[in-house]
Specification:
By secondary structure, the chain is mainly alpha-helical. It has one domain. Helix 2 runs antiparallel to helix 11, helix 7 packs across helix 9 and helix 12 packs antiparallel against helix 14. One of its GO terms (cellular component) is membrane.
Length: 327
């Protein structure tokens, strides 16, 4: 649990880091998009190599076996590599992180439609309540700049694309259990960096200090990737999902402390309601998992923790740069 906590907390300053980097931009977002993704790709590649060194079969062969799922995962991560930081630049950090946190609920629906997963009643109720909360968040105060609406929509779409990533990885792991899923995230961020080259001059910054927040952001994302690759060995997906909710609270908190940004009242009300909804859903999912385990393994109740799935399969249930997803 401590490992998951450290990983989540390392990613919470991302909104503030991106705002810090924005101060050094002269014209356009190309430098931020390029260097953020370049450093994230660097740390992600190191992580992928460390996680993959125990496999006897080379990554290329495993990718070929499940290439449709791997390609879709890469495409999704490429989109997220651009859309997620842009959302932070156009709207409130609280809006971005709250709307993005809907990924677990989106994943449950897609898993039900595409993978024949069970859709618990608690998830249906959570989706209905979450829709009402989002509607409240989209009530715009008078005088607000139109770009905030674009940022909100971008954050919501990013959460949906992230759920597609999770479902594609899960489907790929069913076909190829040792599919190198962390590598898909690294390649996706590399595509994001390449896409930024067509956005504008990636060196058009006002000070070399700009590279400090970009390097820091890449390192922080690297930490959460490592943590979410190790934590599933010791705790369940539901427990990691609950810890990940801290991001909804601390990410806007960092932006407030550093830049004094206060979200509008609709965001606070809708976001607070959504936080409660997701927390209750994750807690109910965790409780249901433990009850199921107690039923199927009554003779092993003396164990402190149940045996969890293989690391790659469990890791695929989570957002690679964000909070855990449970169905």
């Amino acid at each position: 649990m401590l490992i998951a906590f450290v990983g989540v907390m390392s990613a919470t300053p991302e909104g503030a880091i991106l705002r810090w980097g924005k101060e050094f931009l002269i014209d356009g977002e190309a430098p931020l998009l390029f260097w953020k993704n370049a450093f994230t790709c660097l740390f992600g590649a190191v992580l992928s190599a460390l996680l993959d060194r125990e496999h006897k079969e080379v990554s290329g062969r495993r990718i070929l076996k499940g290439w449709p799922f791997f390609a879709l995962a890469v495409a999704c991560q490429g989109f997220i590599a651009i859309s997620f930081p842009l959302a932070f630049l156009y709207t409130y950090a609280a809006n971005v992180i709250v709307l993005f946190s809907l990924t677990p609920l989106f994943s449950a629906i897609l898993g039900w439609v595409l993978l024949d997963d069970a859709l618990p009643r608690r998830t249906v109720l959570a989706l209905v309540a979450a829709t009402a909360s989002i509607t409240v968040m989209f009530v715009r105060p008078s005088g607000e700049r139109p770009g905030h609406v674009f940022g909100d929509v971008l954050a919501l779409v990013t959460g949906l694309v992230n759920s597609i990533f999770l479902v594609s990885v899960r489907a790929g792991l069913r076909r190829v259990p040792d599919l190198p899923t962390p590598l898909a995230s690294s390649i996706g961020t590399a595509l994001g960096a390449v896409a930024a080259l067509g956005w504008g001059n990636v060196c058009d910054v006002s000070s070399p200090v700009f590279f400090a927040p970009m390097l820091l952001d890449g390192f922080s994302i690297g930490i959460i990737l490592v943590a979410f690759s190790i934590a599933p060995r010791y705790v369940s997906a539901g427990e990691i999902g609950l810890v990940s909710l801290l991001e909804i609270v601390f990410t806007p908190g960092w932006v407030f402390l550093c830049f004094g940004e206060i979200p509008p009242e609709p965001t606070i009300l809708g976001g607070a309601a959504l936080l409660v909804i997701i927390a209750c859903h994750e807690w109910a999912s965790l409780r249901a998992d433990r009850l199921d385990y107690a039923r199927v393994a009554p003779d092993r109740r003396d164990l402190e923790q149940p045996e969890f799935p293989a690391i790659d399969d469990t890791y695929a249930t989570f957002k690679p740069q964000r909070a855990a997803s449970t169905t």
